[in-house]
Amino acid sequence: MSQEQWKSKIGFIFAAAGSAIGLGAIWKFPYVAGTGGGGAFLLIFLLFTLFLGAPLLIGEFLIGRKTKGDAITTYQRIAPNSSWGIVGIIGVVTCFILLSFYSVVGGWIIIYLFEALTGGLTGLSQDQYGMLFGEIIANPLPTLLAQLTFVLLTIIVVAKGVQKGIENASKIMMPALFILFLLIVIRSLSLDGASEGVKFLFVPDFTKLTSETILIALGQAFFTLSLGASAMVTYASYLPKTQNLPRSALSIVLMNIVIAILAGLAIFPGVFSFGLEPNAGPVLIFAVLPAVFSQMGFGMLFFIAFLILFLFAALTSAFSMIEIIVAAMTKKDKSKRKKYTWTIGILIFIVGIPSCLSYGVMSDVLVFDKTIFDLFDYAVSNVLMPLGALLISIFIPLKLSKSELFEEIRLGSHSGKMFFNVWYYLLKYFTPVAIIIVFMDALGLIDKIFG
Predict the structure, then answer these.
(1) Which of 88, 118, 246, 286 could bridge to 72 as Cys pair (CB 3.0-4.6 Å)?
(2) Mean pLDDT of the 75-99 span
(3) Residue partners of 447: CB distance under 8 A and separation at least 6
């Protein structure tokens, strides 16, 4: 059995940032911020990301590097003969479900990129863009083929391994993503009336905040950092002891925040400039954004660039999701990687078929008043990831002594006692309590207790 490692520190950071950024920051953040009132949602999201997400990210890095285990064996090695391995199992199941519906959105990106390149998105009205999106996602054969294409691209890269596949792809895709995003943001901010979009994003309106919005902001903080599913545990298991974990975590958190804000600045100025609605929901990028770009000079070129970076971000996140499952199944034996990657990838595609058909032939199939796609999305973002994060935040200080944690976090970083204490108490006390309060609030239990 051969243990893989990242080839370089920057390669790991780009790969982990790619896992974190993905659709969560570019597709999901603008629409949940749009429906959540803009600035108020952004503020809550930033607080959750910095004070809950960052400490938990360091924690996942720490136990992954310490044990060199996959998502399941990491917990078993630290707490043998216990039930804590369930945390890793929850992570593997979460990633499987997540990639099954995530690949559907990846397929939509591929379809839109094809339509944009062949002129199918040129010269339509705002209403026609909305109708086109509805027609595309309701058509089973093209959406299934596009979903399969996205899954195959993911399989091909991950099957090559950590260095040759994930790391090499991420080192190209992540810098390209930032460059393309900056160009699009500059163009978006140059529009007449763009200041209204900037105001919407940065000026909080707390009347828009509800308990559900706060839960969504919590789920978004974990979703965009790939937390709670042991993704970062798996990625950190390939790290040498010389890696500076706090610095790496901070770099990834800041990159994630910057990309989320850039996504808002790419979209909301155009939305307000052309008198469109920011609360269009999941269709915001696919139905609203083409209408915005079509009214700009060289708009289609900018939209094609946006779709390319969107696809890059989606793929880098998909790499981490399937890697967690592959690592857990193969126990990191490179000789089994190719076979298991293909097997797992095809199974994910099959399980994702109902999500793909949720806007077409299976649109009438509802569970708890949600389509299969929406049910999977809600379960992952608002239940499984926060639950996984809660269990991890309890597990680390419970099963590892303060001295063990301090020694591990100092390897490669020489972090001081003050930084360690702040991190430790945030992880041990603040993170679990905050997650429990948000869960209770979303279930209406706080009003029942104190109302």
Answers:
(1) 88
(2) 89
(3) none
List, in order of start, the domains of the chain with CATH numbers. Answer: 9-450 (1.20.1740)
Which H or E element spans position 36?
none
Backbone phi, then psi, for 353, in 5-degree steps? -60, -45
Buried-state track 350-378, b at ≥16 Cβ within 10 A, e below 16: ebbbbbbbbbbebeeeeeeeebbbbbbbe
| Residue scoring higher pLDDT (270 or 390) | 390
Query: Residue 147's pLDDT is what?
Result: 95
pLDDT digits 0-9 by tens, 235-281: 788 877 877 888 888 888 888 888 888 888 888 887 787 777 776 66
Q: Distance between CA atoms of 37 and 336, rounded to whole angstroms?
A: 48
Distance (Å, whole) CA 439 – CA 25: 22
Q: How far is CA 67 from the centre of its chain?
A: 25
Please state the pTM of the whole predicted model. 0.81
Contact 372, 171 (CB under 8 A): no
Calpha distance 92→220 (Å, rounded):
19
Distance CA 294, CA 5 (A): 45
> How many angstroms separate the CA atoms of 108 and 85, rounded?
35
Looking at the DSSP assignment, which residues form a beta bridge with residue 367? 370
Burial of 49 (0-12, 13-18, 19+ CB in 10 A): buried
| Cα-based distances in Å from 98 to 48, 86, 241, 245, 310 | 21, 18, 30, 26, 17
Strands (E), 165-319: none
